[in-house]
C-alpha cells in the first residue's frame, strides 16, 4: 500500500510534478509492470549498434525506478530478459546483456539504497551465468531491508514456464497431501506463482508500439489495464510512467461486472 513514509514527491522534476498533481491519490496503481521494448530500434534510428540501445535502456530502468520510488509505488516489475531472448538472440547480444545487467547492478546499488528500493527477481535465474547470479544475490541482499518500491526484474522469464513450474509445484503438494484435482482453486495456483508475494499488476505498459503480451505474467494480468505506447524504451522516462498512470485512472475497471452508471435491467 502507498504510505506517506515512502512518498518523496518533492524530488520529482517540475514537469513530473505537474502530471503527478493531476493524479487521484485514491486511484493509484499498487503494481505496474512494464514490457521494455525498442532498444534495438532506438539504436538503429541513430545508426548505432543494438548494444547502445540496451545501454540507454538500462539508464531508463534506473530513471523510471527512481520516479516510481518517489511517488511511493509499492511494486514495479520490469520484463528485462525472456527465455525466448536467451534462446533466440545471437550469443554476442545475450552475453552483452548479461555483462550489462552485472555492471548495472554494481553501479546502481547505491542509487537503489538512496531511493529505498528493494530488489527481487523472477524467472529461471538459476540458468544465468554464475557471476551474474552472484551479483544479483548481492544486490537483493543489500536492498532487502529497504521499505519503498519493490523492483522485480523478470530475467530469463516466460509466463508459460512460470505456469508449468506452478502446476508442477501444486501437483507435488497435492500428491503429498493425498488430494485429488477437484480440490484445486485459483488461490492454489496463485500460491505457486513466482509472484505469490505480490498483488497482480493493475497496469501493464508495453513500449515501442508492439501490441503483444509476449508471455508477460500471463495468469496475473487477467484484469490488468494495458497501456501501449509508441515510445521506444530508451526514450521512456518517469514522466511517461506518470502519464500512463493518468490514463489508467481514466479507465473503468469492471472485473467482469457492470459499470456504475449502467441502468437497472427490468426482470421479466
Ligand atoms: C527489448 O528491446 C529489450 C530487451 C530484450 C532487453 C531489455 C534490456 C534492457 C532494458 C537493458 C538492461 C536491463 C537491465 C535491467 C539493466 P529489443 O532489443 O527487442 O528492441 P527491438 O525490438 O527494437 O529490436
How would you explain this protein's 3D organization?
With 268 residues, this protein is an alpha/beta fold. It is built from nine helices and six strands, in the order H-E-H-H-E-H-H-E-H-E-H-H-E-E-H. A six-stranded parallel sheet has the order 3-4-2-1-5-6, with helices on both faces. Helix 6 links the parallel strand 3 and strand 4 (150-157). Bound molecules: farnesyl diphosphate. Residues 36-41, 54, 57-58, 61, 80-81, 85, 100-101, 104, 153, 208, 233 line the site of farnesyl diphosphate (FPP).
Which small-molecule ligands are present, each listed once?
A: farnesyl diphosphate
**What topology, given as strand order, has the largest sheet?**
3-4-2-1-5-6
- The radius of gyration over CA amounts to 20 Å
Number of strands: 6
Shape: globular
Approximate helicity band: 40-55%
The succession of helices and strands, N to C, reads HEHHEHHEHEHHEEH
Query: What is the CATH C level class of the domain at 30-157 and 201-249, in words?
Result: Alpha Beta
Q: What is the beta-strand fraction?
A: 5-15%
SS class? alpha/beta
Low-confidence stretches: none
Give a quick account of the main beta sheet: strands, pairing sense, barrel closure: 6 strands, parallel
Summarize the structure.
With 268 residues, the protein is an alpha/beta fold. Helices cover 43% and strands 13% of the residues. The site of farnesyl diphosphate (FPP) has 19 residues, from helix 2, helix 3, strand 2 and helix 5.
Amino acid at each position: 500500500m502507498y504510505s506517506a513514509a515512502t512518498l518523496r514527491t518533492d524530488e520529482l522534476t517540475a514537469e513530473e510534478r505537474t502530471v503527478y498533481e493531476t493524479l487521484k491519490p485514491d486511484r493509484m496503481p499498487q503494481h505496474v509492470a512494464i514490457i521494455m521494448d525498442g532498444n534495438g530500434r532506438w539504436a538503429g534510428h541513430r545508426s548505432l549498434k543494438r548494444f547502445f540501445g540496451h545501454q540507454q535502456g538500462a539508464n531508463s530502468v534506473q530513471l523510471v525506478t527512481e520516479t516510481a520510488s518517489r511517488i511511493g509505488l509499492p511494486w514495479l516489475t520490469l520484463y528485462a530478459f525472456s527465455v525466448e531472448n536467451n534462446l533466440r538472440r545471437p550469443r554476442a547480444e545475450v552475453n552483452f546483456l548479461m555483462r550489462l545487467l552485472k555492471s548495472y547492478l554494481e553501479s546502481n546499488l547505491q542509487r537503489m539504497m538512496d531511493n529505498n528500493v528493494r530488489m527481487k527477481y523472477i524467472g529461471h535465474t538459476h540458468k544465468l551465468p554464475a557471476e551474474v547470479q552472484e551479483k544479483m544475490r548481492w544486490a537483493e541482499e543489500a536492498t532487502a531491508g529497504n521499505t519503498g518500491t519493490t523492483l522485480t526484474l523478470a530475467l530469463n522469464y516466460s509466463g508459460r514456464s512460470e505456469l508449468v513450474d506452478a502446476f508442477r509445484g501444486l501437483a507435488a503438494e497435492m500428491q503429498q497431501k493425498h488430494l485429488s484435482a477437484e480440490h484445486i482453486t485459483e488461490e492454489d495456483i496463485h500460491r505457486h506463482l513466482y509472484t505469490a508475494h505480490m498483488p497482480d499488476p493493475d497496469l501493464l505498459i508495453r513500449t515501442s508500439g508492439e501490441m503483444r503480451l509476449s508471455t508477460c505474467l500471463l495468469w496475473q494480468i487477467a484484469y490488468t489495464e494495458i497501456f501501449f505506447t509508441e515510445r521506444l524504451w530508451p526514450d521512456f522516462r518517469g514522466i511517461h510512467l506518470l502519464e500512463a498512470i493518468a490514463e489508467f485512472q481514466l479507465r473503468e475497471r469492471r472485473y467482469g461486472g457492470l459499470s456504475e452508471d449502467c441502468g437497472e435491467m427490468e426482470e421479466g
